[in-house]
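Appendix C reproduces, verbatim, an entry submitted by the partner laboratory led by Prof. M.T., so that reviewers can inspect both the input and the predicted structure.
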Amino acid sequence: MKQVIVVNEALQLPRGKLAAQVAHAAVAALLWAEEDELNRWLDEGMPKIVLRVGSEAELLEIHAKAKAKDLPTDLIRDAGRTVVEAGTLTCVGIGPADDEAINSVTGHLSLLR
């Protein structure tokens, strides 16, 4: 079990803004999880991985693949109060779900560094 947050690196968000967007994605995606999967993930220590893509188009593609596999997922659009315009896609949260299911969607992506 794990959760993955995929960040749109093209935005080059400041660290604080990036942290807030990743937190939004983590919470939003877990709200779509089935209760038994959520509880299993909690019992396993809530493992999370943050990955990156280079464009909004890639972010949308990852989200579509996760939805097609019926994974808990949510896109995060910024409110536009600070760094980026309202509606800007910053990241997508996927899971919690089985590692294999998430890897089938995000396994080719690189870690955010």
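The first strand starts at residue 2 and ends at 8. Additional entries are available on request from the coordinating office.
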